[in-house]
Amino acid sequence: MKVVVIGAGRIGKLHAENLAYRIPGTSVIGIADVNQAAAQETATRLKIPRVATDYHDLIGLPEADAVVICSATDTHTDIITAAAQAGKHIFCEKPIDLNLGRIDRALEAVEKAGVKLQIGFNRRFDPNFRRVRDAVIRGEVGTPQRLHIISRDPAPPPISYVKVSGGIFVDMTIHDFDMARYLIGSEIEEVYASAAVMVDPAIGEAGDVDTALIVLRFANGVIGSIDNSRKAVYGYDQRVEVFGSEGSIQTENNYPNSAIISTAASVRRDLPLNFFLERYSESYVNEMKDFVTAVEEGGEVPVGGFDGKQAVVVGMAARKSFDEKRPVRLSEIS
Amino acid sequence: MKVVVIGAGRIGKLHAENLAYRIPGTSVIGIADVNQAAAQETATRLKIPRVATDYHDLIGLPEADAVVICSATDTHTDIITAAAQAGKHIFCEKPIDLNLGRIDRALEAVEKAGVKLQIGFNRRFDPNFRRVRDAVIRGEVGTPQRLHIISRDPAPPPISYVKVSGGIFVDMTIHDFDMARYLIGSEIEEVYASAAVMVDPAIGEAGDVDTALIVLRFANGVIGSIDNSRKAVYGYDQRVEVFGSEGSIQTENNYPNSAIISTAASVRRDLPLNFFLERYSESYVNEMKDFVTAVEEGGEVPVGGFDGKQAVVVGMAARKSFDEKRPVRLSEIS
Amino acid sequence: MKVVVIGAGRIGKLHAENLAYRIPGTSVIGIADVNQAAAQETATRLKIPRVATDYHDLIGLPEADAVVICSATDTHTDIITAAAQAGKHIFCEKPIDLNLGRIDRALEAVEKAGVKLQIGFNRRFDPNFRRVRDAVIRGEVGTPQRLHIISRDPAPPPISYVKVSGGIFVDMTIHDFDMARYLIGSEIEEVYASAAVMVDPAIGEAGDVDTALIVLRFANGVIGSIDNSRKAVYGYDQRVEVFGSEGSIQTENNYPNSAIISTAASVRRDLPLNFFLERYSESYVNEMKDFVTAVEEGGEVPVGGFDGKQAVVVGMAARKSFDEKRPVRLSEIS
Amino acid sequence: MKVVVIGAGRIGKLHAENLAYRIPGTSVIGIADVNQAAAQETATRLKIPRVATDYHDLIGLPEADAVVICSATDTHTDIITAAAQAGKHIFCEKPIDLNLGRIDRALEAVEKAGVKLQIGFNRRFDPNFRRVRDAVIRGEVGTPQRLHIISRDPAPPPISYVKVSGGIFVDMTIHDFDMARYLIGSEIEEVYASAAVMVDPAIGEAGDVDTALIVLRFANGVIGSIDNSRKAVYGYDQRVEVFGSEGSIQTENNYPNSAIISTAASVRRDLPLNFFLERYSESYVNEMKDFVTAVEEGGEVPVGGFDGKQAVVVGMAARKSFDEKRPVRLSEIS
């Protein structure tokens, strides 16, 4: 399977490297970035034969089977549409877009073209969360009643990014909204967001918040909660618990090693893996393997366009709830 | 110090036994219960010299220094008032009452008499939660930003009790509201309760809920959450986390032993201590020791009448929030 | 049941207090110590009516049912013999004595008198180790194959004590030898001790060692190991593992609380309970309750004279092994 | 860097795959195995251009930079010698050989040829053990006093393998002997082995044991212990502890996920990773990366020929100790 990668930033490089080295049978035949030097650097390192500044140059390649979109969010729907029209299968990073109309039109183009579209909710492919999902499906904890997600970043992004990110709910919590839908296997119907600026006043000045507790009501009755912070000084904090009629399953953070050091001062261990590239390195490979398999063997992608849209809708509802200080039903978002 | 105990139910027996055996220098000189046999049984076992069915008979004893009130909730304020008028120091189980007017009048009687009143929020005296409180005070986790309390009972009480308990928020969550105030050291200003009947439909028929997620806003800006269930099949689930600008502190459940058993099936341990008598046995002794010390040495009681009232007010706000499906400010409760 | 306590040192005070306050239905009617002030101080605090400097004064009391011996090791056998001849039941701290002939004569006096003798191997009554023993008995880990005991003190005793203690193997490891026999339920047949002075050269100058690894061979084929140190800077380290054909069971240290604190520096917890008085507070009560039950209800004591002797024999074999740098069979000790 | 792999068994395939996919800049240009089908299967899967049944055909290739030896133990020294004479750098699986004379002659050939030789003690490259080694080097636990290694396989190898393996001490414990030297950074001087047949009588009939406790004395005074079993039903058990004057560091097993499942039956987690291919997948990549780096950049290999020999010598001493039931000094082995 031959792939072109659009975007040579942090995630673009990661996907390109995974496709080049860790997924047998695939090759990256081109990489595009508006910053040519970035594209060239990655191409050289990974022996990718073609470099472009205009993604159309790569999407048009007849031998390309799929397009992996890792460019800026506001370019996603155009590239999806172009790729779909060119008959290429598509892997697109989250969020699809911040505008529901544009998302809908892109998804229509995908449907019309009959190509596959997978959205980059990589955390679904993490062994810990997958184990929780399996437990829910198998009924190991009975009927789910409560979901609690802790999702805290080690440090906030630059203020320049905060200003264009669409806000914490569609930039950061979007992963947790998808995780919530994935773990519980039911749609979110109502959202209540309690949030504040506690980490950095500049985030507030940019119109966003940095600390949030979001309450979810699912169609199947489950009550969910998501605990977000832009700054956990001890590192990336990514834990979940599903509590049900027959028990509870919860996961811990991932650590670089399991060593426990006991001294006269304390019994301690090293900090958890600091951020997503370390913590989710395996899940990035896994999601791409599943995408490759879906394309090559013709099955369903594990995370589709509707999943991508739905997470944005929940994010918008969360923002509306925060602004209006009341629970908001998803049906209010259009 | 000489004490009379009013109420010979489960908690009355516990306090009587702790006073008799585990707190040096105190003695129980009388126990009252409307059920004379219950009072007699405990009196015999613990060698308590006097038994009464009418609590006035014990409160009137000139040699009694203090009254420990463990009777039904609707008798609390009358007994507090009578004890205060008799000049006795008072330890009273939670909740003080379900009516704010009656609470206010009882607290006035206490203030007028100049006696001490301690409310039985025993969890404040648990070594785990005390450690969290100490960390917050010392700034070990910086400025607190988030509080999460998990508080799940192993099994719901009888429906007959549910009907008169005042509901989950003032019966069960009341401990967590007090814990929230204790750990954060700031007043709760707003409450949002999402709740449902998931454990037993009969609880819903009795007008109550059995599963709840409650969002708290504190005066100092902290966002709190409380996760309640009337039924955790694995036993009593009592954990907290305080997350702050410099880190996080979280506590685990208490177990009967630390043994880990690895077999071909799993790596497992025994279930946590099942319920409050086991889990909080030490905290019950500690709270009574502190009450005895406050009486004998003349200092402040660690949990006063205002604490007792405030937890009821938050409980009422939580119920109102659940009924009206919106966040409720405590100032709305009167 | 009426008890006299001989010895008002640390352990004597502990047992006296447990008997006075925490074991219903028993009373301490006298306490003796060659240091009268020590005996008097404890008597006053616990309201013990009689004080003596000569233990014969208490053993002779007709109303005394039992004698609890907590005096210096070299007085044990004389007191056991005197108490047995006076028809009193006996609880004696470890070790019985450092001379096997004296031990044998004392045990004969006990047998002749038909009184009960329990040796103070309190760790058998710790919930963690009891859980391991239960697992072995129930076959939860199949047929035991390996036993590993970690037993490290927080700090060495004074050199003056080291000189008269009989050495680490009969002073400190003796508890572990008894634990080994208790957990495996089989007799030790051979011992190999590898040991050194690593903590304090003064211990070596006193003719003892402070760090040891002892290999045990049991009659049922189990291979055991004991890891001893006189100084673990992080506190009292007391863990065991039994590995068998169907799995493994291991226990952790006991901590003052379960709080985990995550900061930018580490993920840490407070140190384990520092030493035996904290760690084994519950087991001291439990062993004495079982002694009282055995006396009052007429059953077997849980730790008898043979257990007391056997631990000394293994300790002697360990010393001989260390001196002769070879495995030593218990049959070589006489 | 161009590599040929000798041996297409389990480990040969693993190294070939790591070299082909996970180590940038290296390529496998040939693979040899006396079983041609095995070599061919791997060559096809990994697109290796050359296949041979006689390793000489590959060692003679002028473009080959290095030889990775994964064939049967009794072929190692011949291949090492041939590769050295051909001027190729060498990576050789453990043990080098079971005969010290042959080991010495092979090491001489390597030295004479001036090529690099790395022995496959992959566990040194595991993040857990590396963290322990770092702690020792940095003095995080002070001066090391005790080392304890737990090393248990999930199941014994086939009896046919047991018969030719050289016995548990040079086949299985050899990894632990190397780990002991690595962690403590000092040479082993004396060994005492207590061992038995507990897992399978057929292992005893083949002249070997399956359960062992080995005591080590290091030149720097540290006392070590190794706990081996051929069968831990719960999976691969690989843990270490180093205890020192300023504290202790210990590592846990590796698990497929961190999920804890609490039900009415127990609080449990999934079994640890079952065996070395899963547990040490990362360490196999790491060791080969270090070998490649040493060859390409000209530095020291991290595990040299002396390390390979020394582990065999300790294994022989352990066997002698077991046979003669006494501690054996390494100087007795020649």
What is this entry, summarized?
4 copies of one chain form a homotetramer. Chain A contains 13 helices and 15 strands. Chain A has 334 residues and is an alpha/beta fold.
Provide the residue-averaged pLDDT of chain A. 97
Q: Give helix % range of chain A.
A: 25-40%
Instruction: Give the total of domains of chain A.
Output: 2
Distance between the termini of chain A: 38 Å
Radius of gyration of chain A: 20 Å
SS strand fraction of chain A: 15-25%
- For the record, the CATH architecture of the largest domain in chain A stands as 2-Layer Sandwich
User: Please, what is the oligomeric state?
Assistant: homotetramer
- Describe the main β-sheet of chain A briefly: 7 strands, mixed
The total count of strands of chain A amounts to 15
Strand order in the largest sheet of chain A: 12-11-7-10-9-8-15
Count helical runs of chain A: 13
For this structure, the CATH topology of the largest domain in chain A is: Dihydrodipicolinate Reductase, domain 2
CATH homologous superfamily name of the largest domain in chain A?
A: Dihydrodipicolinate Reductase, domain 2
Apparent shape of chain A: globular
CATH class of the largest domain in chain A: Alpha Beta
**Helix and strand composition category of chain A:** alpha/beta
